[in-house]
Structure formats: structure tokens, C-alpha cells
Amino acid sequence: MAIPRLWRLLFRRRCTGARRPLIVPGLGLEVTAVDVWVTGPVVLAFLLLAYLGSVRAAGRAAKALRLDHPGRPFEALDTSPNAIDLAMYTTSSSPRSIQVALGLVLPLATSLALLAVFYLTLNVGVSREADGWALAGGLLFLLALCLVVEIWGRRVRKAHRNSS
Question: Cα–Cα distance between 140 and 44 in angstroms, integer?
């Protein structure tokens, strides 16, 4: 929720009355604060879809290469694990409750990002300057919603399988 609030504070308040263009450094592109604000949901939804697509592609590649069976974990390919990787890593000997809880980090994070897209889309949709950007943000939101629901379904099924 911090991202949409910050976006709104930075740009919506500046949108009322001030139409002085901002110049993008290096490109010389002139954009107004309104332009930046109304494109926010589309940009955030696009980034979320790109992330979800890359996670989905990595999972399919791991299955195709048979990297997901117990003898060769997919995590072994991560040549530079970071703190988040290490914090979420579990093994088959980890307690089931920890495995389930850490398995929900990705769905929870993507759900929060999706909530931010939804919030921004609603706020842009009520503005007069939207010019179809709210519709584009809404369509991308629906696509991202489908992928997030799919992730939740997979994680819940996996947790159910592991508990039985």
C-alpha cells in the first residue's frame, strides 16, 4: 500500500493546477505530472506481469529440465543467493509449518503488489485526466489477478499434498 500512497502524494497533489512539464534527463522528453500519475497503474501492472511471467517461465524450465526432483533442487542453480533466498530456503527436513509459511511469501508479495495496482487504478479511474489509462490498468490488473490466483492455487495444493 505504500507504493500507491507515495505515487498519489507525489503526483496527484501536483496535478491540480500545475501543468509545467518535467523533463526526463538524458532523453529530453517532456512529461507532465498528470502523465506520470495516470500511467502509474499500467506501469506497475506491467512490471508485476513481467515478474510473474518470469517466475512462471523459470518453473516450467525447471520442470522441463527435471530440476525439481529431490536429487537436484532448482535452488542449486542460483549462483548468487541473496538474503531473501536464504531466508525462504527450506529442505525436506524443515518443519512442515515453516515450509508452508515460507511457501506463501511469493503469493503474499504478489497479492500486495496486485492490491497496489487495484488501488491506483481506482484512483486514476475517477480522475478526469485518465483518457483510457484506467481501462488499460484495469485490463492488466485482471491478467495479473489470474496469474496470482493460479499461484495461490498451486501453493495451497502443494501445502495440502505435503500435509497428507
Answer: 9
Give the length of the chain: 164
The domain locations on the chain are: 2-163
> What is the dihedral angle through the alpha carbons of 155, 47, 56, 121, rounded to the nearest 10 degrees?
50
Here the contacts of 118-127 (C-beta below 8 Å, separation 24 or greater) are: 119/1, 119/4, 120/4, 120/7, 120/8, 120/40, 120/41, 120/44, 121/41, 121/45, 123/4, 123/8, 123/12, 124/37, 124/38, 124/40, 124/41, 127/12, 127/15, 127/37, 127/38
Measured distance CA(103)–CA(93) in Å, rounded: 15
Over residues 108-120, the pLDDT tens digits come to: 889 999 998 888 8
Write down the pTM of the prediction: 0.70
Question: H-type helices in the chain, by residue range?
Answer: 2-15, 33-64, 83-88, 96-103, 105-125, 133-163
